[in-house]
Amino acid sequence: xxxxxxxxxxxxxxxxxxxxxxxxESPVTVIxxxxxxxxxxxxxSSLLGGRIREEDIYYRPEGFYAANNxxxxxxxTATGINTQARKVRLESGEAVPFDKLLxxxxxxxxxxxxxxxxxxxxxxxxxxxDARKLDILAAKLRxxxxxxxxxxxxxxxxxxxxxxxxVTVVELADRILSAAFxxxxxxxxARRLAESGISLVLGNTVTKIVRIKKRARRxxxxxxxxxxxxxxxxxxxxxxxxALAEKAGIGVNRGILTDDFMQTNVPGIFAAGDxxxxxxxxxxERRVTPIWPNAYIQGRHAGLSMAGAARPYPGGIPMNxxxxxxxxxxxxxxxxxxxxxxxxxxxxxxxxxxxxxxxxRNGKLVGAVLxxxxxxxxxxxxxxxxxxxxxxxxxxxxxxxxxxxDMQPEIRQALLAAY
Amino acid sequence: xxxxxxxxxxxxxxxxxxQKEDVCIxxxxxxxxxxxxHSPAKDVVKAFRNVSPRPEPRNxxxxxxxxxxxxNCRHCDExxxxxxxxxxxxxxxxxxxxxxxxxxxxxxxxxxxxACPFGVIRKNGAQSKAVKCDLCAGRTxxxxxxxxxxRALVFEER
Lengths: 419, 158
Ligand SMILES: Cc1cc2nc3c(=O)[nH]c(=O)nc-3n(C[C@H](O)[C@H](O)[C@H](O)COP(=O)(O)OP(=O)(O)OC[C@H]3O[C@@H](n4cnc5c(N)ncnc54)[C@H](O)[C@@H]3O)c2cc1C
Known about the structure:
A: alpha/beta, globular, B: alpha+beta, Alpha-Beta Plaits, 8 strands, 18% helix, binds flavin-adenine dinucleotide
């Protein structure tokens, strides 16, 4: 059995570790465009901000591939998949035969329609090499515009600001972090970022990058204003990197469509991570959820399937934990629900930068947003995952020190017995 | 974590620390035992004197009225903390089953705290690192279990 994995991110590692838990022998080959062994992609902001050293960015020890008997082809890009002949074609011309294939190609940055975006002084912020480029620039530049006030944009902004750069974040929505945060949570973080010296321009976007002698000088905004800058970092988000699969005739929608075993519509070909459209536990449908834990777990289930030890993927729930200038935040599940059919409980203490919001549907917890105090927040994600009836726990769950002792004995004992 | 509604699989050879809430008296000696065991000097006096802020225990004692019990890391078969860890600081030892954490690699993103369904990973505020139970690797009986005067903590395979 020859296992081949396209992509070298966390989904790939989840698959390798799962394959090796069931099968020590079969050859595993990993094809990676990036010239690096696997690193913690979210840590590129810690690296740029000077909070970690480059040797600390790697997600697994140097001997990981050898120890797992994996052949890693770095700096090699897959350009085609022949689903009939069961071969992956590489840019370099070689063909890599497979019996089981995992497509874990992640996401590619979304490129907004902005005049002049394809010229010099425009950067992305999704790879180690992007962080290295910005690291060099950070030593030279004074003013940078970050396009996008979501997670990646704010991480880029914070790191550049920590390097002494004047950063302006331009966000189309009327609040930052609009994907996972409501106005209250976004407001607390926006205030903190502004206090720290990061400029936020909301409800506005960049329409044009103005260059003088081929160097960026300012951006023009949709309201007619402009912001001077020497570089632009585009960080609107990522979209599934599905072109390779699509070209091979593998079923795609927003991402590569997968079944409960992470298999695509082609038997023996699997997909996992940011590229996959996979079962969502709360929506009961397939979704693209580009977050780290889901990528690992999907990769793991794909790997188990590939190694003949299949276990159904229970479905993911979105969740994120990020700290902004000392304010920890957690969002999970359906954090900004549609109006109908949901019950929202919330407690806001703006003067303490604290917020706790819970979202219920049919008596069950389906989402939460915590700002300021996030201790033991995993108990909430456990309640979501286990589909526990929390009708009787509403007031208790709103307390910061909510715990198992607040639950009815049967529920508590069942939850604490698990492993 | 496996879904709580499911029965755990047939014993996989791993002993874990379980609480017995009917006999727990909330004395918190388990927390003291844990702190001492994880202090450099492993001495109850030295573990608390001149150490500021006070070190964090790796179990959590909950108290609500007459009810009390310790919550301990389950060293899960499918560790949600490990799956969520963005830095690679958390690993499960394939031989012992212990889910360990390397504080050197931890970046303090708190993803493990968000993911652990037992709520048993804490912040070590002073260092901005997460701290978690290592099942007292190297000891036959974890320090928390040994410290419990009432056998409200047991170390066994279930
Ligand atoms: C700055 C930043 C911060 C983030 N912070 C968080 C966070 O705090 N929490 C969180 O949950 N998530 C975070 N994320 C998202 C998280 O990093 C992703 O969800 C995760 O990396 C997805 O893993 P993956 O394995 O699916 O794909 P990726 O990590 O994208 O890896 C895919 C790999 O495949 C390679 N590849 C693609 N096409 C080919 C090809 N044709 N041939 C060969 N190789 C190919 C790519 O080069 C890449 O190395 C962050 C992302 C960024 C960019």
